[in-house]
Amino acid sequence: MRGFAHDLHGPGVGLSGPRQSIADATEVSRSNTEKELLELPRDTADTVTVLPGPWLGQQGRLAQDEAGRRPRRLPSFTFISAYFAAFRPRPHPALPAEPSTGDQTLHLALQALDLADYAHVVTLVNEAIEQGISWDEGHAEAFNLRGTFKFLTGDVPGAEADLQASLEVLPTFTQSLIKLASVHMEQGDAQAAFKCFDDAIQVDEKDPDIYYHRGQVLFIMNEFTQAAENYTKLTELDDSFVSTHIQLAVAQYKSGNLASSMATFRRTSKAFPQRSEPHNYYITAVSSCWTNSGTKTPSRSSSGRQWKQDIGAAERCCAEALRIDRECEAAVAMLAQLSLQQSKIEQAVEYFGRQSALARSELELVSALTYRYASMSQVEFLKNYLQMAAQLSALARGI
């Protein structure tokens, strides 16, 4: 699953089309980071060791087998917090005069959500639905909440069913419509997603969340002008939304104004010190500096120096992100790739192991485990076939 995200190269960075959903950016930043980090300047060929194709295929099959045995898990605290931060706070539905047990349990789940006790939220909302909820607004809220966490764990069909159940009892619940749009995007149905946005606007044209998330979808689809129109509408309705500032930085990056983008990220971090999202996106932006500069610098030596300098900057940003949140997936994934690109293979194995432990969906887990197994095989190859490894490195330099 991909989150409702901000994108630096096309939210979710380096997206492949409408199958990229519109949620949080941490996951998005990470997926594009992997793509960008593999596109090193040719100067660095001597640091890259070849991973033979047959090994990758074998390790991929092992990874798929292991992924099939893993239970679904919640994303990191940072990821979940960033997801919920993409929606404006709103009051919880008032309990009926004589609340049922399920009503009271739902109230506890919403209180746990306010405290960011996400594991407890999941337990409580499941219990509330099982116990039964007596009023329509609470019923819609419960299925919205459970569907949200199903989506975050990669259970897209389950999320769709819960969000549809929410809308059946409360068709005017715009947040469920917005989240259902993201589910349709994950399923590759952009037409259904935009229908959800249109329905939400018919219900409440002054809901800023609609324009933010529709803008994200348009951005993902490279419809930057239309996306900008939605962001502008959003700022007219609410200029205090942290994600608006982040998206401004993203837009500056997309327009090639990297210095302004960096400055906006830093200002946003200072303006919202309690929020970790700006750090996550800042990581990707900094790492992109060396990728882009490497393709534009005519001198091999200067390109190599720029690459090394920007690698160091990216690593420092990752370290800061992990200081804030030890389970920051974007930072772990980037450090794994940075280690691999610098031929620090054993260190890469460690980071890929951490990345696989943090993976939510089977796709993410297979990707992390494939890299990890391939890197482990590479370590063994280098130990046992040193002469052949040297020949492969020479081949890489000549490509």
Automatic annotation (TrEMBL):
Localisation per UniProt entry: Mitochondrion outer membrane
Pfam families assigned to the protein according to its UniProt record, in alphabetical order: TPR_11
Topology class, membrane: Single-pass membrane protein
Gene Ontology biological process terms, A to Z: protein import into mitochondrial matrix; protein insertion into mitochondrial inner membrane
Keywords for the protein's UniProt record, in alphabetical order: Membrane, Mitochondrion, Mitochondrion outer membrane, Receptor, Repeat, TPR repeat, Transmembrane, Transmembrane helix
GO CC annotation terms, alphabetical: mitochondrial outer membrane
Region (Disordered): 1-20
Gene Ontology MF term list: mitochondrion targeting sequence binding; protein transmembrane transporter activity
Similarity comment: family membership: Belongs to the Tom70 family.
Protein name per UniProt: Mitochondrial outer membrane translocase receptor TOM70
Organism classification: Eukaryota, Fungi, Dikarya, Basidiomycota, Agaricomycotina
Gene name linked to the record: TOM70
